[in-house]
Task: inverse folding
């Protein structure tokens, strides 16, 4: 599959998942907001009902107080004569001020009708009775006006603890919340105009101020402004109430998110596999090029051996045999490197660990490698300053590690200036040995530094025809250093040079 096709599918699926997740998130937000608005509306309606009930309780209190003061007398004391003792007619009428009252005339209905006749003298008596009722109405109206005036002028003087008893308020709140479908624990407080708590429940603290779970309702709004009090109610578990409305949506969101993560992981694996395929293809091409030269050399030497004149010359035979041996060693070294990496990937490689003097081993390596460096006009120096350089390693693999680093320095040298290659050792804290291989070559770009230890990876300058290799050298180096329980890191600047720093534990004899 082409890389562009993978990217196209990735973008389409990513946008689809992003849109799906966005719609689910927006739906949950809208559900929570709608549920929150419904909750707030129900609470406000409940608080308003509670305040109305408290106002009615206070009105009842003053009515009871006024009734105790009244002396109940007979209504018919001012009537002349004895009122009828039989059933009669009841009339209902409403005054201009809106007060409804009843007028009862007892007696036989037919006689009552005759009383209204202008020829009957009882009509005057009926009119006088109306005057009496009017007087009683005015009397009771005065009492009602006096009662209302008392409520207006005296109610705010009562202590708020009496007007809104905590037990009564809690009972009213609980009943109204249940009637509006709110079955949650709550805390409340009565607060005066200055913000001081008159009384609070146990779970209500001043730290709750500003919380979106706080609801406020004015108590007795007709009180004078300086004496206004407020009822504050707080719901500690409001968030649970809101989340309950989307508890069925949350699993679908989680499943969608898991599916999205799985898709992302699949795409990453696809790109990684494609990248690995490309690196393996490069490896095969490089390997073909690496093997082609020695095979061609060996083939040419074999053809020369078929020539009688060549076979008769000992010097030529010696030269041809040397070429065949060198090219054979070269082939064997390349094959061995590939096999070693394969065995290490399968964890089947066995190491022959032993105490090795790093200074002595590096000194022998530099002596052998110095001729190759000088062949290119360079210089190789060794500063072996470590006082205790005994390490536990496989000597053959340790030698190959140093050889690989030195060989890379030669491969990636700069053509316009002599190669300066240096190997140093020194003691560092923690009973460890530090080995540094530095050069003044072409260096490594920052984007390549973090990948140079990957298998088959070669920096862009490494694809030149004059640079041989499979992209396995540094991967092999890192594997070996880790097997020796050490660490390796690289410092490099492009066109300035590269420094490989190896730290290994010291063996105490």
Result:
């Amino acid at each position: 599959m082409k890389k562009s096709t993978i990217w196209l599918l990735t973008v389409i699926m990513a946008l689809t998942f992003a849109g799906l997740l966005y719609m689910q998130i927006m739906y949950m937000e809208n559900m929570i907001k709608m549920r929150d608005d419904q909750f707030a509306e129900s609470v406000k309606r409940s608080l308003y009902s509670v305040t109305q009930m408290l106002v009615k309780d206070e009105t009842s209190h003053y009515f009871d107080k006024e009734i105790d003061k009244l002396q109940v007398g007979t209504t018919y004391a001012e009537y002349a004569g004895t009122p009828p003792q039989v059933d009669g007619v009841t009339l209902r009428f409403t005054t201009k001020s809106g007060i409804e009252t009843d007028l009862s005339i007892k007696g036989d209905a037919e006689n009552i009708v005759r009383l209204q006749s202008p020829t009957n003298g009882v009509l005057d008596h009926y009119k006088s009775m109306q005057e009496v009722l009017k007087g009683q109405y005015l009397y009771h109206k005065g009492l009602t006006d006096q009662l209302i005036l008392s409520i207006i002028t005296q109610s705010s003087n009562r202590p708020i603890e009496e007007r809104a008893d905590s037990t009564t308020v809690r009972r009213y709140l609980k009943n109204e919340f249940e009637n509006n479908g709110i079955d949650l624990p709550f805390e409340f407080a009565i607060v005066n105009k200055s913000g001081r708590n008159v009384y609070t429940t146990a779970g209500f603290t001043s730290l709750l101020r500003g919380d979106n779970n706080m609801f406020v309702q004015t108590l007795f709004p007709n009180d004078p402004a300086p004496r206004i009090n407020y009822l504050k109610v707080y719901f500690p578990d409001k968030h649970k109430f809101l989340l309950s409305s989307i508890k069925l949506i949350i699993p679908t969101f989680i499943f969608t998110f898991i599916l999205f993560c799985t898709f992302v992981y699949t795409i990453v694996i696809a790109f990684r596999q494609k990248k690995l395929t490309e690196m393996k293809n490069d490896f095969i091409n490089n390997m073909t090029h690496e093997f082609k030269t020695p095979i061609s050399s060996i083939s040419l030497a074999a053809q020369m051996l078929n020539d009688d004149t060549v076979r008769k010359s000992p010097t030529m035979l010696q030269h041809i045999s040397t070429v065949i041996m060198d090219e054979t060693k070269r082939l064997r070294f390349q094959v061995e490197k590939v096999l070693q990496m394969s065995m290490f990937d399968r964890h089947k490689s066995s190491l022959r660990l032993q105490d090795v003097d790093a200074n002595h081993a590096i000194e022998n390596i530099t002596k052998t490698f110095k001729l190759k460096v000088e062949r290119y006009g360079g210089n190789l120096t060794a500063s072996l300053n470590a006082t205790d350089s005994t390490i536990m390693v496989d000597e053959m693999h340790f030698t190959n590690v140093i050889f690989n680093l030195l060989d890379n320095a030669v491969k990636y040298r700069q053509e316009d200036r002599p190669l300066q290659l240096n190997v140093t050792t020194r003691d560092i804290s923690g009973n460890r040995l530090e080995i540094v291989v530095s050069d003044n070559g072409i260096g490594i770009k920052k984007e390549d530094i973090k990948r140079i230890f990957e298998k088959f990876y070669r920096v862009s300058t490494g694809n030149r025809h004059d640079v041989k290799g499979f992209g396995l050298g540094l991967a092999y180096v890192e594997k070996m250093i880790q097997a020796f329980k050490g660490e390796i890191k690289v410092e490099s600047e492009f066109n300035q040079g590269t420094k490989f720093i190896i730290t290994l534990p010291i063996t105490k004899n």
